Amino acid sequence: MTKKTDPIDALGAAYEKMYERAANDFHQLEEKTESAFHKLVDNAKLKAVELGEVTEQEAEKLAEWLKRDVADTAKYLSETGNEIQGWLGYESTLLESAVLDLMFRTADKTTLELLELKEKAVHPASYHTGEVTGPGTLVCGKCEEKLHFYKAGKIPPCPKCHGTSYHR
């Protein structure tokens, strides 16, 4: 009997795989900039399509969401100086994935041009039902209900009020 893969889990897995490819290449670069990271995400997007992991349309959306999540993480670290648990909204030891370590290293203050990111990220990142996000906590824009993501996954409607818009 063949086990069917849940399409939502498949997108989360593809998000993590694309991120791993981009982040591993990013850490090999001598000059680490936001534009270099974005180029590597675009390369990972092409590779995912080439390998048949996702469709071209899915890869495009995943790449957009990856870039959003790294910018959001970097903005948080830059503005607050707080520990990453504050951005996550829970203890990082609860995570199932090594993707978080890559995300922290990619968004680390010493590896990104945070001032450039900060200027571009004047408006808080918004997250919507149907998109995929990485580990962390999203807060419903309507009722403030918190959704905790321990690995990459598709964002559902709010379980409390059925809202579809979130923020970190």
Walk me through the structure:
α1 packs across α5 (99-107). The protein is built from six helices and six strands, in the order ααααααββββββ. It has helices at residues 7-28, 34-50, 56-80, 84-88, 99-107, 114-120; strands at residues 127-128, 132-133, 136-140, 146-149, 153-154, 165-167. Residues 90-96 have low confidence and may be disordered. The protein is globular and about 45 Å long. By secondary structure, it is α+β, with helices and mostly antiparallel strands. β3 and β4 (146-149) form a beta hairpin. The chain has one domain.
Features:
single chain, 168 residues, alpha+beta, 4-stranded antiparallel β-sheet, two-stranded antiparallel ribbon
Blueprint of the fold:
Layout: H1 7-28, H2 34-50, H3 56-80, H4 84-88, H5 99-107, H6 114-120, E1 127-128, E2 132-133, E3 136-140, E4 146-149, E5 153-154, E6 165-167
Total count of strands: 6
Shape: globular
| Number of domain modules | 1
As a whole number of angstroms, the C-alpha radius of gyration is 16 Å
The secondary structure category is: alpha+beta
Total of DSSP H or I helical runs spanning 4+ residues: 6
Residue share in β-strands: 5-15%
Distance between the termini: 41 Å
SSE pattern: HHHHHHEEEEEE
What would a concise description of this structure say?
By secondary structure, the chain is of the alpha+beta class. 51% of the residues lie in helices and 11% in strands. It has a 4-stranded antiparallel beta sheet, with no helix packed on it. A two-stranded antiparallel ribbon has the order 2-5.
